[in-house]
Amino acid sequence: MTEKVILVTVDLEDWFQVENLRGHFPHSCWETCESRVHASTGALLELFDQHDIKCTFFVLGWIAERYPEIVRQIASQGHEIASHGYGHRLCTGLNRDDLRDDLQKSKELLEGITGQTVAGYRAPSFSVTSELIDLLAETGHRYDSSYNSFGMNSRYGKLEGAWSKTSGKLIQSANGIYEIPVSNLEIAGKVFPWGGGGFFRLYPLWLFCRGVQKILKQQQYYLFYCHPWEFDPGQPRAKGLRPDYRFRHYVGIEDNLNKLDSFLSMFADCTFKTCNAFLKLN
Ligand SMILES: [Zn+2]
User: Fold this and answer.
1) Distance, CA 184 to ligand 1 centroid (Å)?
2) Whether the Cβ atoms of residue 126 and residue 88 lie closer than 8 Å to each other
3) Ligand 1 centroid to 14 CA: how many Å?
4) With contact defined as beta carbons under 8 Å apart, do 40 and 231 qualify?
5) Residues ≥6 apart with Cβ < 8 Å to 42
6) How remote is the CA of residue 90 from the centroid of ligand 1, in Å?
7) Burial of 205 (0-12, 13-18, 19+ CB in 10 A)
8) How far is CA 269 from CA 41, 223, 272, 275, in A?
9) Where are the domains of the chain?
């Protein structure tokens, strides 16, 4: 039987840094917002420890700069530290120099804290561009995990340029950067968002698990993503949010940690790997 691999990934950012809340919490006010990332990350680390799994944390440089102890704790528990960029600005909204600076700053910060090379990157809101893939190679990254094939979210980017499949069926760009896309479910040529985040909170667990089983039959791995704030029901509620943004941010938050616990138990017979280990980069 072929090995079924699950890659659990966490985009490490605070609750007020999310794109849906940007109108209420612009970058200029971040310093004054109540940080809750220690507790919410701690809860996730405890859960991963209970299940004895190793995951990949795409850490925002802004967080690492202020709370290096979180990064050290994650690394000391054997998880991979990767980068979520520095300032959580969409790649599509930055010019080439600013994007390069953002990538470099985060990578250097994280490597300075752990003493280990940062190989991976995930763009805010999956806003991948071909320029990003260029710059990842230029700044010494080895892989990207920013492509989400679900086409209904206007913030998600496209995978352009020349890509090829390696013998291990991995996708690699002409400049050597690997791509590990977020997993989605394909049925009759249609793509359904199945990678985690708000969709994991929204769908009933039985349905979500059924989809993941199907994905694991279709491809060699399943990649799941989440954020610490998705497991923090006590976070401050933004008032006057657009109804669709409010729904996306808060749906299912109350019981999400238990839901993830159940999900991990359901797939306990799978092999959980970090992205680095999956790509055999270390
Ligand atoms: Zn993010």
Assistant:
1) 18
2) no
3) 9
4) yes
5) none
6) 9
7) middle
8) 25, 16, 9, 19
9) 5-278
Q: How far is the CA of 87 from the centre of ligand 1 (A)?
A: 10
pLDDT in tens, 126-145: 888 889 999 999 999 999 99
For residue 59, the CA-to-ligand 1 centroid distance in Å is 9
Q: Which residues of 135-172 are buried (b: 16+ CB within 10 A; e: fewer)?
A: bbeebebbbbbbbbbbeeeeebbebeeeeeeeeeebbb
Global confidence as pTM: 0.95
CATH no. for 5-278: 3.20.20.370
Please tell me the distance between residue 113's alpha carbon and the centre of ligand 1 in angstroms.
20
Q: What's the pLDDT tens digit per position in 143-170?
A: 999 988 887 777 777 777 777 877 667 8
Dist. CA 212–CA 51, nearest whole Å = 18
